[in-house]
Amino acid sequence: MKNQSLFAAVASMACVATPALAQDRPTLQKTSLDGGSAISPSSATATVSASSVPQAMERLGGDDTSVDLSLGTLYGAGKFGTNSTTTIWSSALGARAHVKNLTLSASLPWMQIRSRSTIFTGIDATPVLVAPNTSTTKRTAEGFGDLTLGAAYTIAPTNMPVEVELSARAKINTASNSSGLSSGANDYAVGADVSLPLGAVTPFASFTYRFLGNTDAFVLRDGPAASTGASVALGREAFLVASYHYSSAATRQVSAAHELFAGASQRIAGTPLRLTGFVTTGLSRGAAAISGGAALSIGLGSRAGL
Predict the structure, then answer these.
(1) Are strands 187-195 and 201-211 parallel, antiparallel or unpaired?
(2) According to the model, what pLDDT value does residue 8 have?
């Protein structure tokens, strides 16, 4: 199977890569950000999720080992090119560990999808629309989705203002066969995020290529995903993020996804907690018409006292 042949390559890259979904990473001396900047909340998928957003809003960095945990939730709805509305509810627990320039991450979602179409959970529990109108009535699929594991490596040359993060992620089939949430196959993604800290403003762009596992009924299409946007720091503890996201269609029966994202994040004074809220709006038939969510993250170890 094509994904099995890719696993070794993804696993080896994971040793030198990590998602560009982190905050308070050491920025260059000449671009001191006083609180950091967010990077793309969708570097692995170009679609936001209940786990990718809180990780984007808290950049891990520095020479010390640091760990954070997050709990996020997302609700989305849209017709996805059909004549009936699909609703998606997702909650995810995420964890990351950072050592020097390497970050390892994991997330496990609980999901509920009510739809007439066939939709699976993808990397970071993002919805993967496979086929529209596959049922005459709405079906509800719910339960724990597939586990996502990620790794990334940050490159920040001292003589350049740019930061580059190379990433590799794998969605491991852990959902039960009866849940209806999983394709039953593993998915993989490799990519890169580039950011340019410019004082309080940090433009960023990401490109990812996804390898989707086939199912018994559908041959899924590998393809690219991308995003671009910017974050704006509001002092040391808060910032805003706005971005555009694209992901290619998983099959010929559906459309590619185009959407806009806006988010805000604030560290709760005197605590290691960060509160984040976000909203998206779809620009194409392949994306949810609207979605929104919130997340709470906590820093442990060397950053717990920030």
Answers:
(1) antiparallel
(2) 46
Query: Tell me, what's the pLDDT at 301?
Result: 64
Q: How many CB atoms lie within 10 A of CB 24?
A: 23
**Residues sharing a CB contact under 8 Å with residue 291, sequence separation 6 or more, in sequence order:** 48, 74, 75, 76, 77, 88, 279, 280
Enter the tokens of residue 196. Answer: 């340019």
Residue that has been written with the tokens 């995003």 in this structure: 227
Find the farthest-apart pair of alpha carbons in the chain and give their distance in angstroms, rounded: 60
- From the list 167, 259, 242, the residue with the least C-alpha distance to 202 is 242
What are the tokens at 251?
């099959």
Q: pLDDT value at position 215?
A: 85
Q: Which residue has the tokens 């950049």?
A: 59
3 state SS of 218? coil
Token couple for 249? 């269609």
- Residue 230, by phi and psi: left (phi above 0), alpha (psi -120 to 50) or beta? beta
In whole angstroms, give the CA distance from residue 275 to residue 183.
Answer: 32
Distance, in Å, from the CA atom of 128 to the CA atom of 246, rounded to the nearest integer, reads 13
Across the chain, the runs of DSSP E, i.e. the strands, are 66-78, 86-99, 102-115, 118-121, 127-131, 139-144, 147-155, 163-172, 187-195, 201-211, 223-234, 238-247, 257-267, 273-282, 290-301
List helix spans (H) across the chain: 2-14, 52-56
Give the pLDDT confidence of 222-275 residue by residue, as tens digits. 999 999 999 998 988 898 999 999 999 999 888 899 999 999 999 999 899 999
Residue 59 near residue 25 (C-beta atoms within 8 A): yes
| Phi-psi map region of 36: left, alpha, beta (phi>0 left; psi -120 to 50 alpha) | left
3-class secondary structure, 38? coil
